[in-house]
């Protein structure tokens, strides 16, 4: 019992950082009203951190890369579950990518790379929000070019 309590205390910093990282990404997704929000991202990040911690706790008896490989497989299955086809387009691919990313952050937390996990999480949220503005800019330019082409086609006399 004491050994288990010591293990739990040893895991605490990793689990707290995993919770914080999952919360940061989850809030960003929740604000945007996406399918995978705060709870999903926290559960994935903390769950992956726990699996990683347990995997490395076996010491030389276990290969942590095998544990991480199995985590990736499971996350791929979970991410695939949020991708849907609606008429002629796919939805949920970005949510699946966010799930994949937060799992990687969970692995970092489980391995003890807490500063890296925090910096990458904050950077990821900043970059993905900046990319949204870039997408809007590209869409506006593309739409204006299409409108320009449509207008020039209608101006020609047959």
Walkthrough of the structure:
There is one protein chain. The chain has 158 residues and is mainly alpha-helical. It has helices spanning 2-31, 38-57, 64-80, 93-111, 114-155; strands at 84-86, 89-91. A hairpin with a 2-residue loop joins strand 1 (84-86) and strand 2. The model has no long low-confidence stretch (mean pLDDT 90). It is 81% helix and 4% strand.
Q: Terminal Cα separation, in Å?
A: 88 Å
Query: In total, how many domains does the architecture comprise?
Result: 1
Run of helices and strands: HHHEEHH
Number of helices: 5
Number of strands: 2
Uncertain residue ranges: none
Mean pLDDT: 90
Structural class: mainly alpha
Strand order of the largest sheet: 1-2
The largest sheet is: 2 strands, antiparallel
Q: What global shape is seen?
A: elongated
Q: What is the alpha-carbon Rg in Å?
A: 21 Å
Topology record:
Blueprint: H1 2-31, H2 38-57, H3 64-80, E1 84-86, E2 89-91, H4 93-111, H5 114-155
């Amino acid at each position: 019992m004491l050994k288990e309590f010591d293990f739990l205390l040893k895991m605490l910093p990793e689990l707290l950082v995993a919770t914080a990282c999952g919360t940061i990404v989850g809030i960003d997704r929740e604000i945007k009203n996406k399918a995978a929000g705060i709870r999903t991202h926290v559960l994935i990040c903390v769950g992956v951190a726990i699996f990683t911690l347990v995997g490395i706790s076996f010491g030389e008896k276990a290969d942590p890369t095998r544990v991480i490989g199995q985590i990736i497989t499971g996350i791929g299955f979970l991410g695939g579950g949020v991708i849907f086809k609606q008429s002629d387009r796919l939805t949920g691919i970005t949510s699946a990518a966010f799930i994949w990313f937060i799992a990687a952050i969970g692995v970092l937390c489980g391995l003890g790379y807490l500063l890296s996990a925090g910096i990458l999480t904050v950077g990821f949220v900043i970059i993905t929000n900046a990319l949204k503005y870039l997408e809007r800019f590209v869409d506006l330019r593309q739409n204006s070019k299409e409108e320009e082409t449509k207008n020039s086609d209608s101006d020609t006399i047959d």
